[in-house]
TrEMBL record:
Domain of life, source organism: Bacteria
SUPFAM superfamilies reported in the protein's UniProt record: vWA-like
Domain DUF58: 42-249
InterPro entries given in the database record: DUF58 (IPR002881), vWFA_dom_sf (IPR036465)
Name this protein carries in UniProt: DUF58 domain-containing protein
Pfam families recorded: DUF58
Length: 291
């Protein structure tokens, strides 16, 4: 897999998405559900009410018994991509990419992968003032719509409040929700949103996006930090605070992962300096498990 910096350097989101995802397209994930698909699987005895078009008349003539031809069929679902576009996603890693840059690449690749598996793909961008929503579609124009929306996203402000999100969470639709967020919140607004979405949609995957420089605390000497959402600043000696910072960070990450899984979310940490392949594999694994 190409590095995220290389993909971003293409400056062409559709091409970057295709480049990142096409290595995962070998082998469609078929469910074991039987139906009137294209690939023959087995015969079973005819039952009253079965579609007579699926009856094998030649076998009936030879055996004087009636059998239905069954096939394995592709299953599709709604893959609902959810992007946190609050200002903390503007955090920049040492490779020059922001969390938002990485999230764009990741969501575009997931959209490409899901679309090529025949799934309807939806996108919701969570802005401070509310939401930008593209309903789930599987037609040929949906990918360009999603790419265009992702290319024009700008992160700003704080995570939207419950009032702005109420119409979004009122929709009841079976879907696989994939949320890309750094999970920085003032209280528990992201957790509450995902809990409500799991109640109405059934499946939630959380891709917790973190930069390497915040994971490894690569800063040196006296550094001024600014909260991207509140504007608050803090000056400290990075070398003196590194051990305490990393201890608190690991504790927060453990608690975050445990809390997410306690709520029934499929939680995965993604690093903005690493290729997208882990997240794409987890999507395929999750998709296969619910097909």
């Amino acid at each position: 897999m190409l590095s995220p910096e290389t993909l971003a350097a293409l400056r062409n989101l559709p091409l970057a998405a295709k480049t990142a995802a096409e290595g995962f397209l070998a082998g469609q994930h078929l469910s074991r559900r039987r139906g009137a698909g294209m690939e023959f699987s087995q015969y079973r005895p005819y039952l009253p009410g079965d579609d007579l078009r699926r009856l094998d008349w030649r076998l009936a003539a030879r055996s004087d018994r009636y059998y239905i031809r069954e096939s394995e069929v592709d299953t599709s679902l709604v893959v609902h991509l959810l992007l946190d576009a609050s200002a903390s996603m503007n955090h920049r890693d040492d490779n020059g990419l922001t969390k938002l840059d990485y999230a764009r690449l990741l969501l575009a690749a997931l959209a490409y992968l899901a679309h090529n598996q025949g799934d309807a793909v939806a996108l919701t961008v969570l802005h401070p003032a509310g939401i930008q929503h593209l309903s789930g579609q599987s037609d040929s124009r949906q990918l360009p719509r999603i790419f265009h929306a992702l290319e024009n996203v700008e992160a700003a402000g704080r995570f939207p409040g419950n009032d702005a999100l109420a119409p979004f969470t009122a929709r009841r639709q079976r879907a696989l929700i994939i949320c890309v967020s750094d999970l920085y919140e003032e209280t528990s607004e992201i957790e509450q949103l995902l809990t409500r979405l799991r109640a109405v949609s059934g499946e939630v995957m959380v891709l917790h996006t973190l930069a390497r420089n915040e994971l490894d605390f690569t800063h040196r000497g006296s550094v001024m930090f600014q909260d991207l959402e509140t504007g608050h600043t803090l000056q400290l000696d990075a070398d003196q605070q590194r051990a305490a910072y990393q201890q608190q960070l690991q504790e927060w990450l453990r608690n975050t992962a445990q809390n997410a899984r306690r709520h029934g979310f499929d939680y995965h940490e993604v690093n903005t300096s690493e290729p997208l392949d882990r997240a794409l594999r987890e999507f395929l694994r999750r998709r296969q498990s619910i097909s």
